Amino acid sequence: MELLKKMCSIHAPSGNETAMTRFLLDYIRKNRKNWTVKPEIYSGDGLQDCIVLVFGKPRTAIFAHIDSIGFTVRYGKELVKIGGPRTVDGYKLVGEDSKGKVTAALKVLVDKKTHETKLEYDYKRTLDRGTELTFKPHWRETKDYVQCCYMDNRLGVWNALKVAEILKDGIICFSCWEEHGGGSVSYLQKFIYEKYGIKQALISDITWVTKGVPHGKGVVISLRDSLIPRRSYVNRIIEIAKASRIPYQLEIEGSGGSDAKELQMAEAPWDWCFIGAPEDNVHTPDEKVYKKDIDAMVKLYKLLMEKL
Predict the structure, then answer these.
(1) Does 195 lie in the same domain as 280?
(2) 129 plus 149 within the same structural domain
(3) What is the pairing mode between strands 207-208 and 278-280?
(4) Which residues partner with 135 through β-bridges?
(5) Pairing relation of β-strands 70-73 and 79-82?
């Protein structure tokens, strides 16, 4: 899983996805000659740091966000969250400012009177305002698991690239800003709907291990999170999964969200379903995923892009 390991180490917090975009474009251009269908690539002007790949005569679009959570240096030693990272005193952070590369530590300070939490970095000098710090990558792999920061959502991107190898008809969208409010899917869905008439999507993202969704039971098909997809579309997906014997499990949550929120709020009549492997230690440097769940995710996506 060297490709996934490499992507987990790329600095691409929400709003500064440029390095991930460059990496993906380079990878796609080098490898698409070996794919079943050589896709048309849309990037650059009008799409900011997003990428759209179009294969054959598409019917369904995959959305996978390329950004991550992190922190922004404010004034002095202060940090402001990018998205929703877990904050534990001592977490190792990395970044770069005008004076060079940085390896710092997260400091979580709690006011004894007000109990308010303040975040700072511990480093030998003051960093430039606006410097972004992300979790320091520490890749761990065993027979059964992979573990590192940013499985969410480098694993969703990796899944999309695996599907791209055999995809005959479909669209793959690599989106930005998902971890910090979204925004890019609004114009991506408009571009896709108006140019290709596509109105059904799969969200290639990573979900949570919970009491109802454990490691080792297969890829997760989400029936709902903070939003509710159209049930008839989700039922079609479940029927395809049932017939395939690919291991899967159903998720029901009352919170959380994804790129799907901008599809559901769009003027176009989009159907969507969130499908992804479950991870433990969400939004920490230690996100952990079971390899067989990853395998099930790739297999189900390949099948759904053929059948839907």
Answers:
(1) yes
(2) no
(3) parallel
(4) 93
(5) antiparallel
Tokens 């060297």 correspond to what residue?
2
How far is residue 172's CA from residue 166's CA, in Å, rounded to a whole number?
A: 12
Which among 135, 155, 178 is the end of a domain? 135
pLDDT of 113 strictly over 90? no
Alpha carbon dihedral 160, 36, 193, 158, in 10-degree steps, equals: 10
Given pLDDT bands bounded at 50, 70 and 90, which one contains residue 209? very high
Q: Is there a single domain that holds both residue 175 and residue 249?
A: yes
- Hunting for tokens 């009491």 — which residue is that? 211
Phi, psi angles (nearest 5°) of residue 23 = -60, -45
- One-letter amino acid for residue 5 of the chain: K
Strands 219-224 and 248-252: parallel
Contact assessment for residue 135 and residue 149, using Cβ atoms and an 8 Å cutoff: yes
Last residue of a domain, one of 101, 135, 169: 135
User: pTM for this one?
Assistant: 0.97
pLDDT tens track for 150-197: 999 999 999 999 999 999 999 999 999 999 999 999 999 999 999 999
Enclosing domain of residue 118: 70-135
CATH number at residue 196: 3.40.630.10
